[in-house]
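User: Hello! I'm new to structural biology and keep hearing that structure can be predicted from sequence alone. Could you demonstrate with Pyrimidine-specific ribonucleoside hydrolase RihA? Please show me the input and the output so I can see what each looks like.

Assistant: Of course. The first part below is the input, the amino acid sequence of Pyrimidine-specific ribonucleoside hydrolase RihA. The second part is the output, the predicted structure written as tokens.
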Amino acid sequence: KRKVIIDCDPGIDDSLAILLALNSPELEVLGLTVTSGNVPARLGAKNALKALQMCQRLDIPVYIGEELPLERELVTAQDTHGEDGVGENFYEDVDAKILYGGVDFIIDTLKNNKDVSIIALGPLTNIAKAIMKDKKAFDNLDEFISMGGAFRIHGNCSPVAEFNYWVDPHGADYVYKNLPKKIHMVGLDVTRKIVLTPNIIEFINRLDKDMAKYITEITRFYIDFHWEQEGIIGCVINDPLAVAYFIDRSLCKGFDSYVEVVHDGVAVGQSIVDSFNFYKNEPNSYVLTEVDEKAFMKMFLKRIFKEHESV
Ligand code: BDR
Ligand code: CA
């Protein structure tokens, strides 16, 4: 099994990514660290517990990390994910403890284990802080996957910026420039192709599981948002692709490149991918550009509804 920390800001699609990770036998999830992004971190941590509860995995610790971006003011995405971050279902709090000290948890886990990977599904604030505090700990890092950025595609926060890097552009840029390992950039170029449609929701509900009910509930608001804002029927679920790609490399293709993130001005949050190698810098990233979306969806449904033979 591969040991992973999931750093996240749940978030509807973060919640779905957690479900996928916990239903994947290849992974040993050592803990969830939460940062502010879609919602403030304290709210995100509650949503993380809810996802763990859905998988009966409340043994996995949930840590709150940084509650504010490094330099910018926090701007959440409660218009997209709902006031509560999970589609305005206002679930009761799960009866489990939320821990503090997410940044130290990341550092200690890296120090005490060999070959831990991190899958980051939110702004990179916790990771940036952890590198600032103890860069050496990252020598033990196996792989780093970041859902974020946009290469040849329109942004989702500005014409050029993707949400996670836009929320904390200083954090994102710091991680790109200081992480001693290559970053697998799972950006909008690939994640925008992952759409959970009402058809799929209808299908999973035939399986008549608590899980289908939960997924239907949390995605309803998100589906309405996509219809109203973009005229899309269904919702784009970005974060689960980062987990799926970590497990199965054949799902996506990309190329090595140097990447940095703009922190100020009109292009704030933009990921600058030097695909022509103008700067002659060593590549610090593997930027994904292609995805087999059907294979992803099959994997996602098969794993989450694993007991059902017809999936
Ligand atoms: C990213 O932003 C958030 O709203 C999602 O959870 C995802 O991580 C997509 O831009
Ligand atoms: Ca997220």
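User: So the tokens describe the shape?

Assistant: Right, they're a compact way of writing down the 3D structure. Reading them back into a model, for example: The radius of gyration is 18 Å.
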